[in-house]
Amino acid sequence: MTHELTPAAAWLRLQEGNARFVNADASHPNQDASRRASLVNTQHPFAVIFGCSDSRLAAEIIFDLGLGDVFVVRTAGQVIDDAVLGSLEYSVEILGVPLIVVLGHDSCGAVTATIDTVETGTMPAGFIRDLVERITPSVLTARRAGVTDVNATVIEHTRQTTERLVDSSRIISNAVDAGTVAVVGVSYRLDEGKAVLVSGFGSVET
């Protein structure tokens, strides 16, 4: 399945929605009863957003979207596991989305916890440890570049996650090589509400 939008057109649509949100001019599209009814038996999202589970990072709100517009996958610290890869591959292979957005944000608790672990050597309890272990390579890469600030480390983690995603999935990497899909890393600024492009594979140039 191929979506009618190009990766560049999908990214432009997200940028336009985010600009409306930032300017307090959101239009809240596709949120009425007729839209709901039209989606009972089908869906054609134009992008998949793989973001952090943080309560301040609701994708449909910050990009001013509605029902059926985006396929959303969320984990704390946007960490990749097999379920995430399967979900993203489903969005590309079955739903035909032309754009994958890896969405990080300022003051990320999962990244902060990982920085604390790297500095103290003390692992958190339970399955939080799994999150920290998956984020640690990004923190170490940031440290080697002289980056210690949490928000700058989040940007590095978003870049690293974008790269790992393409490296880990043949379905996604083949789609990027074919030009039908782009994968972009985006950092969300909590104070402004602005989503900023920080990395990418494939073209989103208009």
Automatic annotation (TrEMBL):
GO BP terms in the entry: carbon utilization
Record InterPro entries: Carbonic_anhydrase, Carbonic_anhydrase_CS, Carbonic_anhydrase_sf
Cofactor(s) the protein needs: Zn(2+)
Molecular function in Gene Ontology: carbonate dehydratase activity; zinc ion binding
Pfam families: Pro_CA
Alphabetized PANTHER family for the sequence: CARBONIC ANHYDRASE, CARBONIC ANHYDRASE 2
This protein's record includes keyword DNA repair: no
Assigned keywords, A-Z: Lyase, Metal-binding, Zinc
Protein name in UniProt: carbonic anhydrase
Catalytic activity: hydrogencarbonate + H(+) = CO2 + H2O
Stretch forming the signal peptide: none
SMART domains (alphabetical): Pro_CA
Species of origin: Arthrobacter echini
